TrEMBL record:
<keyword id="KW-1003">Cell membrane</keyword>
<keyword id="KW-1133">Transmembrane helix</keyword>
<dbReference type="Pfam" id="PF04973">
    <property type="entry name" value="NMN_transporter"/>
</dbReference>
<comment type="similarity">
    <text>Belongs to the nicotinamide ribonucleoside (NR) uptake permease (TC 4.B.1) family.</text>
</comment>
<feature type="transmembrane region" description="Helical">
    <location>
        <begin position="171"/>
        <end position="189"/>
    </location>
</feature>
<keyword id="KW-0813">Transport</keyword>
<keyword id="KW-0812">Transmembrane</keyword>
<feature type="transmembrane region" description="Helical">
    <location>
        <begin position="64"/>
        <end position="81"/>
    </location>
</feature>
<feature type="transmembrane region" description="Helical">
    <location>
        <begin position="101"/>
        <end position="120"/>
    </location>
</feature>
<keyword id="KW-0472">Membrane</keyword>
<protein>
    <recommendedName>
        <fullName>Nicotinamide riboside transporter PnuC</fullName>
    </recommendedName>
</protein>
<feature type="transmembrane region" description="Helical">
    <location>
        <begin position="148"/>
        <end position="165"/>
    </location>
</feature>
<dbReference type="InterPro" id="IPR006419">
    <property type="entry name" value="NMN_transpt_PnuC"/>
</dbReference>
<comment type="function">
    <text>Required for nicotinamide riboside transport across the inner membrane.</text>
</comment>
<feature type="transmembrane region" description="Helical">
    <location>
        <begin position="41"/>
        <end position="58"/>
    </location>
</feature>
<feature type="transmembrane region" description="Helical">
    <location>
        <begin position="17"/>
        <end position="34"/>
    </location>
</feature>
Amino acid sequence: MPAIIQQIIQQFAQTTMLEWIGTITGFLCVYLAAKQHILNWPISVISVVTYGYIFYHSKLYGDAVLQLYFLGTAIYGWYYWSKKIRENDKPIVSFTKREMLFTIITIGILTALLGTFLQKLTDSDVPYADGFCTAVSFVAQFLMTRKVLQNWLLWVFVDICYIPLYLHKGLLLTAILYFVFAVIAWGGYRDWKSTYRTFMQ
């Protein structure tokens, strides 16, 4: 058997039950979000609590703190999406070029702040990579709660960025999950874009 296959099998065998739980619930919540299903939010609560613990012990402190933010946005998103559940669905909105520029600037500022914080005050060996991915995720998650179409493009981008970071930390299953996330996010973007165009007609 090739050495690379043996290594992959060994890493799967060493995957903890918590990572399996986080992976399964993470997959479900992203898939349901792409389908605009409100159950993505309660399932997200389970996923973020699980991954908060995993990331903290992997010294990915930015991601660990991000899970607390995700917990808050999951509760807010659940409320926002169900606020008028008996009326029309919350419409999907699209950013203007000015709003996208503001979003990019916000991500840049957050990256600098988080990266500096992680470098100076933690023992993280990837402070700016962690800070950047955390910043993009922070913004993308907020945009998702508001049903902004471009949230999915940010998720595609950051999910791909996360893959080498998690491989570096030995989180093979999570790295694979984030590749799947990127694929789902692209599908989510296409689905939401179709819905948006239909709504605008």
